[in-house]
Structure formats: C-alpha cells, structure tokens
C-alpha cells in the first residue's frame, strides 16, 4: 500500500484570522499587502490526522478541565524512541504551556538573582529576556562564523565560567543560525557542563526539521552524566504547526530537578492543560510520521529553491542555507544600510517582512531572518518582490 501523500503546495489564506504572523504588519505596523516571513510558524495546515482529532474532541461540546491520559505520555515516549533513538521514561516527563514559559520557570527554579547564565548568541531572543527579566546576569558565549558555518567557541566558554555561573541555555537545532550540532560538538559541551557542575537547559523544539546529511541528537541522550543535569524543552508545536494550542514537553531525568520544576509550576498556577493541545500532540506524535517526513522534504526543496534564486538573481544577498529549522539567515551587509533602513527596505519597498538580525544578538547586524515554511508559490512571489526592489535600488 502506498503511503498517503500530503499537499504542501495549496495556498492557505490566513489573513484576518487573528494570526500574529499575517495580521501584524497591517494592524500594528500599518503596512498593507505584506508577505510575512518572520515569526516561526508555518503557512501549512496541521496534519489532517491532527485536525480530525481536534474536531472529534470539539464535537463533544464540553471543554472542562482535562486529565492527561496515559496515551499522551506513551505517544511522546514512542516518538522520541522512533525518531531520535532516545529511550525516555514516563517518570522523566512533565507538561508546560510552551517552551518560553519553561525557560523562565527553569531560570526561576534552578538559579538565584544575580547568578550568571550563559547564552550562545546570536540566539532566539527570549533566551535573553528569560535571564534578564528574572534578575539574573547574561554571560554571552558568542558563536563564531568560520568556514561558512556557525560554530561554538568552546575555548571562550571555558574562560567565561566562574563561581557564579549556574546554567547554560542551549539551542539545538539552533535558531536562527540553522546549525544541527554534531556529536563531537555536543560531547565537548557536555564535558564542560559536567566538569564545571552546571545545569543545562536545552531548547530542542526544532528537532524535527533536519535536512539530509544531518541528524538531531538530544544532548541528554549522550550519557547518564549529562542527562542528570539536563532539562530538555521541546514540543510538537513547531513541527506540526500547533503552537496556538500552548502545549509543550519538559524532559528531566533527574528526579530532584523534576520535583523542583513541578513545584514551581504549581506555585505559578500552570498545572491545567489545554484540552485541544493534549489531543493535538497525541495525534501528531501518534500518526504524524509520514506527514513530517514529507514536510521536511518539501522544506528542503524550498531552501534549495531560495538558495539558487539568491545566487543567480540576487548575489548582493548571501543566503545561509540551514542544516535544520525552517529559518534561514540573509546576509545583507553588502547594501551598507543601517539596520533600520534595511528593515524598512524589505518591509516598505519589497513588501516582505522578516525578523531583523540584531534582535538575536549584535553579531547579526546587517542580517535578516527569513521563514521559508510556506507553499512554494508564496515563496516565489516573495523572492520576486525582493528582486524587483533590489533592481530599483541598483538603478537609484
């Protein structure tokens, strides 16, 4: 029997649906007719199996406080084993309303005001706010761009750890630089964490979007020693486009750390789940294998299509093809424009909206982050808009 084929080419009209991604530019920025390629959600419907599961639950009509069924946890355990060769136990798992809330909970639970927390910039900007808004101190261990790829500077990391350093927050796969860390990189990082008695919070929410030649490796799966000091944050939300259902997973093999985390979530009143989020995650992990494999194939096609377009028709912009995630960096430094002017150029001249590079760290001055998780027809239109704007800029 042939596997079901899914259609990622069909346009999905998300305007006027209270979509942050699609309605922000007109309703907040006041700029109409913009193709949004910024915030990290996809312009594909969730898998039909997920949609049907949510519909079936909605038809019941009563949406009271939910219990979490055993099948929810089983779907996570099976998914991690089958997709990532990581055998996790039910006793390691707890639930959260999202990875960003979990980041803040980890900072509050495991560190004290004034403690130092390491982030590897440029990186997903809520890492910075999770540290600073909770009265802790950021220590930046910047990535370095070498041999056409971003790499960890582990020598710099070793130098910056001192007696007040308590935690490192890892992004794996990395948003926004698109790295899928190798086993060798993760093993050396784990050795540093263990040797210096640090805790590791690993954001692995983009773990499903990994392209040919690369493989995501959960860092906690390397050894019992690193698992004992790692809090892994992940979700089905990025993979299956269900972020609005506010359901994520926290994996903590260390029983003491898990208990502390659960106490903090109870203190914050975050123990009640989203009933549709529970249903959607279980359906995604239980029935979404073929869909995610076909999605990744389609996304890789988008990446290659964009790479060729920039290389052949827009050489002023360097497209940094990612190893993982559906996000890519555009190196626009050849324009010589200050960042605000660069942002306005794309928004108001090209009518394409990106995340500006410096929100992820000063290392990305002159860069933009582009979200390519959309039908190719929409991607083509966006690239043609950029080409037209750049052509006008060339002749001005």
Characterise the protein shown here.
Helices cover 42% and strands 15% of the residues. The protein has helices at 20-29, 48-59, 70-84, 99-110, 126-132, 154-160, 183-195, 224-227, 237-240, 255-267, 275-287, 289-313, 339-350, 376-395, and strands at residues 35-36, 93-96, 116-119, 137-140, 144-146, 149-151, 165-171, 199-203, 230-234, 248-251, 318-320, 327-331, 352-353, 355-356, 367-371. It starts with 19 loop residues before the first helix and ends with a helix. It folds into 2 domains: 20-47 and 289-391, Aspartate Aminotransferase, domain 1; 63-287, Type I PLP-dependent aspartate aminotransferase-like (Major domain) (Aspartate Aminotransferase, domain 2). The chain is globular, with a radius of gyration of 21 Å. It contains 14 helices and 15 strands. The chain has a 7-stranded mixed beta sheet, covered by helices on one side. Strands 11-12-15-14 form a 4-stranded antiparallel beta sheet, with helices on one face. The chain has a two-stranded parallel ribbon with strand order 1-13.
